[in-house]
What we know:
Elements: E1 10-16, H1 23-26, H2 36-52, E2 59-70, E3 79-90, E4 93-102, E5 107-119
Antiparallel strand pairs: 1-3, 2-5, 3-4, 4-5
Amino acid sequence: MDTQLKPGLHLSKKFNISENDLASTLQTSKVPFAATPSLIILMERVICEMISTHVPETYTSVSAEINIKHLIPVAAGDQVSCSVHLKFVEDTKLFFDFVIFNLEEDVVAIGAHERVLVETDTY
């Protein structure tokens, strides 16, 4: 498979935290702050957007491993910025670093993520 995925690719996107993102809404906690899984979904969306133009249309990527530290709370209505960076590529495996900031540029969450490229025809 020929891709244009090279280490160093990066993308940042801004998101508003909604009621649907809250741990209390997702029933993972009673606190009215963004759930860690919601932050993971934001990060994965940014990565998928970034790599979509660099792989053949017959391929997609799937999540293989996630390591995240969720450091500070964010509430509904708060804006966050998610920045992802392609650290290295190993055959069909893609390794990313990511960080999510609040408006004050405090680190909300930081981590690493691995995705694997797969042919969509096989599913």
